[in-house]
Specification:
By secondary structure, the protein is an alpha/beta fold. Helix content is 45%, strand content 16%. It binds 1,4-dihydronicotinamide adenine dinucleotide.
Length: 276
């Protein structure tokens, strides 16, 4: 039986989420995606109008099918969390059931269960500010969107995940080394994400035989990365210092993610939870 994957954090064809979706689709998985509510309209329109068809091409020539796109805002766990101004915001008012709990309920209603959960999202409203200039609000927003969102997704999706299932997220080396410019508490958020991955792997592994991993990915000129402001420098640095000097392709990280959530990744994560 084919696996079913839910990939949170896909809103265009430039980021890691898209590449992971393609890699999983190429391996035969059914693809569901969760798209940030404010980005939903453009993404669905692009899909409908065929603007992403070139990028949907899989190695065998067929096009990746996305079975369903769910609106999602991973900073809200349920409706009680949502403030009035967000509820009535024009970009949000057009969609319903986009809190994490509601999305998990919808997926359960539509498909019953999933096998693979992918967290490919982050947001740090003050990412361009040094940590010393970051406000409490900005710091907590970064942690909420980029770290707690993984906990929340797991918490709500684990009940509908089949035993033997797996989850993966994406982290960045600024968690453990100083990368000046990766600010706003995003370095802290990635450190939390990595530490949480170890604890979540233990808890989900013991309770439901579900594996939890994170990949520390190299720099990619995605939409999110461009808002950091110096992604070109990050890419250049990485290229200069990489053992094999070549451009990093999103697909390579996509393939690593697909491997880790597949049965092939099983023994690997007994040794290390964080794979580079
Ligand atoms: P991306 O822009 O393709 O993905 C980020 C996604 O998060 C977007 O689709 C955005 O709409 C979504 N998002 C933001 N806030 C959200 C919320 N509250 N609820 C739901 N979705 C929300 O960019 P990228 O770079 O592919 O990011 C994916 C992951 O990869 C992130 O965790 C990022 O930190 C990580 N990463 C990226 C690197 C890079 O250089 N691009 C390097 C290492 C890790």
């Amino acid at each position: 039986k084919g696996k079913r994957a839910f990939i949170a954090g896909v809103a265009d064809d430039n980021g890691y989420g898209w590449a992971i979706a393609k890699s999983l689709a190429a391996a035969g998985a059914e693809i569901l995606v969760g798209t940030w509510v404010p980005a939903l309209n453009i993404f669905e329109t692009s899909l409908r109008r065929g603007k992403l068809d070139e990028s949907r091409k899989l190695p065998n020539g067929s096009l990746m099918e996305i079975t369903k796109v769910y609106p999602l805002d991973a900073v809200f766990d349920n409706l009680e969390d949502v403030p009035e101004d967000v509820k009535s915001h024009k970009r949000y008012a057009g969609s319903t059931k986009w809190t994490v709990q509601e999305v998990a309920e919808c997926v359960k209603e539509d498909f019953g269960s999933i096998d693979i959960l992918v967290h490919s999202l982050a947001n740090g409203p003050e990412v361009t500010k040094p940590l010393l200039e970051t406000s409490r609000k900005g710091y907590l927003a970064a942690i909420s969107a980029s770290s707690y969102s993984y906990i929340s997704l797991l918490k709500h999706f684990i009940p509908i995940m089949n035993p033997g299932g797996a989850a993966i997220s994406l982290t960045y080396i600024a968690s453990e080394r100083i990368i000046p410019g990766y600010g706003g508490g995003m370095s802290s958020a990635k450190a939390a994400l990595e530490s949480d991955t170890r604890v979540l792997a233990y808890e989900a592994g013991r309770s439901k035989k579900i594996r939890v991993n994170t990949i520390s990915a190299g720099p990619l000129g995605s939409r999110a990365a461009k808002s950091i402001g110096f992604i070109e420098k990050m890419i250049e640095y990485s290229y200069k210092n990489a053992p094999v000097q070549k451009e990093l392709l999103a697909d390579e990280v996509g393939n690593a993610a697909a491997f880790l959530v597949s049965p092939l990744g099983f023994c690997r994560d007994r040794k290390r939870r964080i794979c580079r």
